[in-house]
Design a protein that fits this description.
There is one protein chain. Helices cover 2% and strands 52% of the residues. The chain has one helix spanning 269-274; strands at 5-10, 17-23, 28-33, 38-42, 49-53, 58-63, 69-73, 76-81, 86-92, 100-107, 113-119, 132-137, 143-150, 153-158, 164-169, 174-180, 187-195, 202-208, 214-219, 223-228, 233-239, 245-251, 257-262, 281-285. The protein has a 4-stranded antiparallel sheet with strand order 1-24-23-22, with no helix packed on it. The protein has a 4-stranded antiparallel sheet with strand order 2-3-4-5, with no helix packed on it. It has a 4-stranded antiparallel sheet with strand order 6-7-8-9, with no helix packed on it. A hairpin with a 2-residue loop joins β7 and β8. The radius of gyration is 17 Å and the shape is globular. The relative contact order is 0.18.
Length: 299
């Protein structure tokens, strides 16, 4: 196995860095800062980060087929025009739950935007439970709710054959699988494929590699783990120099680099002094696997 190397590429000290996604056209990495209310774009050429401020907690960003991006913002699906720094609401969810916000989201292989909600946290991972739901935004801007009673809607991705949807509700401490219908976007037959061990802490964001294995960022666990969804076995652990690892994606020229976001929200001065890179974005090279390019939203 090649030697794994970890470097902090953006020490922005994000409150809750999340939703890393590689924009091949721009040759750049996008991510969000939920509590900092901004969408960020890091360029490997300039090594600089551009950021667009928004008016609510922004929890995920995705590519859009037509141009630019789509985001989840508060309880809205919205479009983001980067150059114009313009945000336009597409539609609202959870209107009856003023204390809710979106959390993680990702576009499926057919170009639909899946994203889930949760109650606002009182402090990290402490919140009113069972308030969230999982939604899909279709290309015609209609929305379907798949299920409710979610605690913290989190990581999501699809199997290489597009027949399985993988999903994390963080406080279940489990990575779940569903049967998935590519034609309709319907999901069913939920089951757990991996339960996190104590030291792995809370499952957060997730992505898949070209071998069909899942990578899960462990919040408060300071690591990403590689899982085999077929056997339910953990294959690899990569530890990072920060505890609050939040999400991961593959990117770079050939999608052989992994990018990991992290959080600093809820850490006191003493904790931050021990982990000065908390809230940074990390690049991991030498994993010996590649990722799947992100799908763009079709609407």
């Amino acid at each position: 196995m090649s030697s794994v190397r970890i470097e902090c590429i953006a020490s922005e000290g994000l409150g809750i860095g999340e939703s890393p996604v590689w924009d091949e056209k721009e040759g750049a990495l996008l991510c969000v800062d939920i509590t900092g209310r901004k969408v960020c774009r890091w360029s490997p050429l300039t090594q600089g980060v551009q950021a667009i401020a928004v008016d609510a907690p922004v929890s995920s960003v995705a590519l859009r087929k037509s141009e630019d991006y789509v985001i989840t913002l508060g309880t809205r699906f919205a479009a983001l025009k980067w150059k114009e720094q313009l945000v336009t609401t597409i539609t609202h969810v959870d209107k009856d739950k003023p204390n809710n916000r979106f959390n993680d989201g990702k576009v499926d292989p057919a170009g639909r935007y899946f994203a889930g909600t949760m109650a606002e946290e009182i402090r990290p991972a402490v919140l009113e439970r069972h308030q969230g739901s999982l939604y899909t935004l279709f290309s015609d801007h209609s929305v379907v709710k798949h299920f409710d009673q979610v605690d913290i809607s989190n990581g999501l991705d699809w199997s290489l054959d597009h027949k399985t949807f993988f999903y994390i509700d963080s406080l279940s401490y489990s990575v779940d699988a569903f049967d998935y219908d590519l034609q309709t976007g319907k999901i069913g037959n939920r089951r757990s494929i991996y339960r996190l061990e104590k030291e792995e802490s809370i499952p957060d964001g997730m992505c898949i590699d070209t071998e069909g294995k899942l990578w899960v960022a462990c919040y408060d666990g300071g690591r990403v783990i590689r899982l085999d969804p077929e056997t339910g076995k953990r294959l690899q652990t990569v530890k990072l120099p920060v505890d609050k690892t939040t999400s991961c994606c593959f990117g770079g020229k050939d999608y052989s680099e992994m990018y990991v976001t992290s959080a600093s929200y809820g850490m006191d001065k003493e904790w931050l002094s021990r982990q000065p890179q908390a809230g940074g974005v990390f690049k991991i090279t030498g994993l010996g696997v590649k990722g799947v390019p992100p799908y763009p939203f079709a609407g």
